[in-house]
Design brief:
Layout: H1 10-16, H2 35-52, H3 62-78, H4 90-112, H5 116-143, E1 149-154, H6 158-169, E2 175-181, E3 196-198, H7 203-210, E4 214-217, H8 224-233, E5 240-243, E6 257-260, E7 263-267, H9 276-295, H10 297-311, E8 316-322, E9 328-334, H11 359-366, H12 374-380, E10 383-386, H13 393-402, E11 414-417, H14 419-422, H15 431-443, H16 447-462
Helix pairs in contact: 1-6, 2-3, 2-5, 3-4, 4-5, 9-12, 10-11
């Protein structure tokens, strides 16, 4: 059964029969998320509750108020009640607010005394009232067009059309569809609620031209695999991505799902490099690579001396590799071969067992010590400590032709170590599997995953399971 054959709620079926709705032209605008206002409202509610119940008699009890407020923010945020949503309902947030109220009441009563039950009732009541008032303001702003999010709908089939009509008829969701993208031309363009603006290849240009901030994947008749590249293209764009789940009528609605007039929408995770944690990754790279160069300086000098004695002049081997977004950079390693590749020699994939490897070269390769000069590449910003390993252009071209979505691994900087490497995919191993692991790492990146990979890399080096 195709998505276009799935039935939708009766209201949407009726709505789909109405005449096309006009899109009111608006100037593209960027608005902040509602999250800061929700956080501020929660803090205000906790402080007022502490004062109203005389748990603290004045702002002289600021330490108690701070601890209680932090506890509330941690609970509410942890339960996902600070995220921006299309459908705003305070009733959906009551369980999270009640849990936060219980936490703050316990903290306040333990630190400052007073009735825990009375504080619980007042905190929860104020949290609900403040949240309801904020939601009412946001919904009103959306209806009046003060806060709008311009959207492109990928897929002009039945689901996409019903989504567009629902969004136009229900402005309180804040979504203003500006057009469809679909490689299959609609049979009846005049009957569409918003124009068909082109194919999937036009996505980036239209996002910029139309001031789009939301992408909604409504599937249409295009095969899923053909949409993956299009959706990943959105990673570089400053927009949020939603998708209608397959077989959504059979799927349980989780708290992480959004909804637009009865149609569930999955919000895709924000692209790795658009998250705040990504800046922390770069800061960690600078700190760790700089510290490592300082602490390992004696070892680097000893290795340089050993390479010089075994191989002669030319301690550092430089080679052009492909980095983030396909931009080439010069990668540095300690030389391990007796004779470097000449200008006319053909590049080889692996040099394991090469007769030109001497004792020093074999040792520094087996322990990965030959890779340590790449700490300078990391300090320069050309690489990261963790990321997909960089390859030469000739192999990138070959693998991109032979392996689907191999080029997607260049969405982030190359790494000194990576998820594929710590899973044993080093040396002469499957490139397709490496690509899968690299793209999986990018899609699921977190600071904790980086730390996990670094820890496993250290174990690999210590037990000398290198290439």
């Amino acid at each position: 059964m195709s998505v276009s054959e799935l039935s939708l709620p009766t209201e949407l079926s009726v709505l789909a029969q109405d005449r096309p709705l006009e899109v009111v032209a608006t100037r593209p605008r960027t608005w902040p998320t509602v999250r800061p206002f929700l956080i501020a409202g929660d803090v205000a509610a906790v402080v007022v509750a502490l004062l109203a119940t005389r748990t603290v008699t004045s702002l002289g009890g600021l330490p108690v108020a701070v601890v209680a407020a932090v506890a509330v923010l941690a609970v509410v945020g942890g339960l996902g009640a600070h995220r921006s949503r299309l459908t705003l309902s305070v009733l959906d947030d009551v369980p999270a607010l009640a849990a936060a109220g219980l936490t703050s009441a316990f903290v306040g009563s333990q630190l400052a005394g007073g009735s825990m039950l009375r504080l619980l009732v007042v905190v929860v009541a104020l949290l609900v009232v403040v949240r309801a008032a904020l939601y009412a303001v946001v919904r009103s702003a959306r209806r009046r067009g003060v806060v709008t999010h311009r959207a492109l709908v990928l897929g002009a089939g039945e689901i996409g059309q019903q989504l567009a009509r629902a969004a136009l008829a229900r402005p309180e969701h804040g979504i203003v569809p500006v057009g469809f993208l679909d490689d299959d031309a609609p049979r009846d363009p005049a009957g569409l609620p918003v124009p068909h603006l082109g194919g999937y290849g036009d996505l980036a240009a239209l996002v910029e031209r139309e001031g789009v901030s939301e992408i909604i994947v409504a599937w249409g008749r295009t095969h899923d695999s053909a949409l993956i590249d299009t959706v990943r293209e959105c990673d570089r764009l400053d927009c949020e991505i939603f998708a209608v789940p397959r077989f959504f009528e059979l799927q349980h609605r989780s708290r992480d799902m959004d909804e637009l007039w009865g149609i569930p929408l999955m919000r895709f995770r924000r692209a790795t490099w658009r998250s705040g944690s990504w800046q922390a990754k770069r800061a960690f790279d600078i700190f760790a690579s700089g510290l490592a160069l300082l602490l390992l300086a004696p070892l680097l000098l000893l290795v340089a001396l050993a390479v010089r004695i075994e191989l002669g002049a030319g301690i550092i081997f430089r080679q052009t590799r492909v980095g983030v977004d396909g931009v080439p950079f010069t990668l540095m390693k300690f030389r391990s071969l007796r004779l470097p590749e000449g200008p006319g020699s053909s590049p080889v994939w692996s040099i394991n067992g090469d007769a030109r490897l001497g004792p020093v070269g074999r040792f520094i390769r087996s322990t990965s010590i030959d890779e340590l000069p790449q700490l300078i590449n990391i300090l320069r910003g050309e690489m990261s400590i963790v990321g997909p390993r960089p390859e030469r252009q000739v192999f990138v071209d070959q693998f991109s032709r032979d392996i689907p979505r191999y080029h997607d691994r260049h969405r982030i900087p190359a790494g000194l170590t990576g998820w594929a490497q710590v899973n044993g995919l080093r040396g002469d191993t499957s490139i397709a599997e490496r690509s899968t692991f690299d793209n999986n790492y990018i899609q699921n990146w977190s600071l904790w995953l980086d730390l996990k990979i670094i820890a496993r890399t250290v174990g690999t080096v210590v037990f000398r399971r290198g290439s």
